[in-house]
Amino acid sequence: MSRKLTEDTPVGKALIDWWKHLDDDKGGRAQLRRASSVFEALMCPAFQRLQSRLVAISPEMFSKGHQLDRLAMACALMAHVKVTSELTLPKAMSARPKGAERNPVSELRFKRLLESPDDEALFSGLRRALPLIEQKVDLLSLASAVLYWGNDVKRAWAYDYDWL
Question: If you count Cβ atoms within 10 Å of the first and of the last residue's Cβ in the chain, which end, N or C, has fewer?
Answer without folding.
Answer: C
